Amino acid sequence: MDKFMLAAIEQAQKGAESGGIPIGSVLVKGDEIIGAGHNQRIQQDDPMAHAEIDCLKQAGRVGSYNGMVLYSTLMPCYLCAGAVVQFGIKKVVVGENTTFEGAASFMKEHGVEVINLNNTSCIEMMQDFIENNPDLWNEDIGK
């Protein structure tokens, strides 16, 4: 498995272990992770603390995002896809979109290459969470 997706999965597990939603993300420049984060909506009582947003915050000010790749264990929602488009990130690699369709078409319409790995580990991690925490999941996706 791709080492960067493995790092995103580790972030998702970190989020789950701290009582949150198991979604993780890393921002990659060349062969280096420059930011990593996980969904912390529950932990921080912050509806904006999605994994991709946390990852971008952890990376800090990087100037240009040209050539960078964002990895996420789950297809980004419109909030996170908006950040991708806003900052000019042109490639997003996702673990899966089986449990959440997300905003792939929005990103593609804005020139972002979206690669879906359909990763079994990512799918099972989210299916287990959703089955055991339907209220938290529905809150996270705005239902």
What can you see in these coordinates?
With 143 residues, this protein is of the alpha/beta class. It has 7 helices and 5 strands, in the order αββααβαβαβαα. It has a 5-stranded mixed sheet. Strand 3 (68-72), helix 4 and strand 4 (91-94) form a beta-alpha-beta unit. It starts with a helix and ends with a helix. The relative contact order is 0.17. The mean pLDDT is 95.
Topology at a glance:
Blueprint: H1 3-17, E1 24-29, E2 32-38, H2 41-44, H3 51-59, E3 68-72, H4 78-87, E4 91-94, H5 104-109, E5 113-116, H6 120-132, H7 134-140
Parallel strand pairs: 3-4, 4-5
Antiparallel strand pairs: 1-2, 1-3
Strand content: 15-25%
Q: Please report the distance between the alpha carbons of the first and last residues.
A: 33 Å
Structural class by SSE content: alpha/beta
Helicity, as a percent range: 40-55%
Number of extended strands = 5
Average pLDDT, rounded to a whole number, is 95
Keywords:
five-stranded mixed sheet, 143 residues, alpha/beta, 18% strand, single chain
